[in-house]
Amino acid sequence: MEPQDIDKHPVVHKLREWSATAIAEVLEFRGEFTVVVPREQLLRVAEYLATEPSLRFSFLSDITPVDRFPIEPRFEVNYHLVSLDRRERLRLKVKLTGSDPMVHSVTGVWPTANWHERESYDLFGIRFEGHPDLRRILMPDDWEGHPLRKDYPTEGYR
Amino acid sequence: MTTTIETATGAAQTMVLNMGPQHPSTHGVLRVVLELNGEMVVKAEPIIGYLHTGIEKSCEAKTYSQVITLTDRIDYLAPLSNNLGYCLAVEKILGIEVPKRAQYIRVLLTELTRCASHLVWVGTHAIDLGAMTVFLYSFREREEILKIFEYLSGQRMMTSYFRIGGLALEPPPGWLDKVRRVVDSLPGHIDEYEDLLTKNKIWLGRTQGVGIISASDAIAMGCSGPMLRGSGVAYDVRKAFPYSSYDEFDFNVQTQTAGDCYARYQVRVAEIRESIKIVKQAMEKIPSEGLFRAEVPGIIPPSREEMKTSIEGLIYHFKIFTEGFAPPPGEVYQAIESPRGELGVFVASDGSAKPYRVKFRAPSFVNLQSLPKLAEGRLIADVVACIGTTDIVLGEVDR
User: Which of A136, B64, B112, B263 gives 20 to 30 Å between its CA and that of B4?
Assistant: First the structure.
């Protein structure tokens, strides 16, 4: 798909119209659209997508980080949104550096983000600013390291 | 296991009770820390992770095909649904079209899985609330469904029957007769369970008005499946984002508006009946002849005969099983409607033969998050009903 076609996507178009700084990049793969958002803009964009009456991305199905170690910015956090009545999906992506893996929490917009963000913190060490209760969730509280990071070995001793 | 603690307000003396991780009604190893005022739950906090086995980390060390066996073990009550979600995700990355015949067989089997899973649910939930009989009946019927899976794949539970591009094996002759026998008898059995439960005074007392979650709360908490539909939101991935030819089937999304434990019970029972409807349609649709797996050289293993008779077949067979195949770099998210809700599989490929990252959006994990909302302000006994109707599988919660 050509870049100008991607811009014709209604949600992308709407976002660009709303704010020129909201979108860093738009990607398309196998019919799925990913809007890459600058870290500082995430909360603003999330609030807009969730509340704008013509979009209504009221359902957050998942938050999935990916570790691109040793490439910098190292972490990508994917937010999978669903608009229940418009039957549309959208992926938001934020890129974070290894030295400062921190992004604003979206629990205020989608309360379901609470456990997803705790899981991301637990397994990737990504910190979510403003999260009400950022603790480990799957690993024991005294665990050291973040198992899903790429520099964490799959087998053997640490 | 009890201690007395000071509350923040200091007004009432509350007690902390540890429910689980070894407790029969928590369906696995779930621990719920309850803060109680008498028998009333002031605060409930689910604590999970006891069954965490690092499945997502293990996936990164396996080839794409090897991951399928791990997906069985995530939600062990609906292994075929997990197989399907993962296979669809990888097929999406690869851009493979699965033959119609395989798609219909997949639909038929995942709907039988839904029946089997809901049968376990209705039985175990009833036994949690003190109705012993249904448990014995529903496990009897579930066994008949598992026998079909065994006939097709050789395994009752960890089937790994769906493979990338289609199915593992050509279904054995006569399998549809076995399916027909089960779906013909199942509606009568459901009537039996309903006779025992639906209008049972004790059952109504234990479930009606218990564990209420409103539609807006359910959406905000990310609930899906019967949890969401019990609150009146008609969101079903099979209808909203059809996959595997679900758009060719005629079925209704079951909803209830009460949002309590009884509503979720009604939704699940109605879903078994809808699933039977889909299975019957699928039996009509499945052509007797045709491919059970796509033919894509280098990615989908060639047939046994081709491997034995042609040099290309032998080379591909050897390469696929020793080094796997490498999809193009990219990321996909594929959601399916598992018996518990939206099962999402996120697969990121970096162009190598092993998935760079696999993430399972487990419906149980997300649904469990709303347990405090269901249980707080109710009695301890109701916590059991709330956990039950959330229908969690701890293997899936902890992965």
Answer: A136
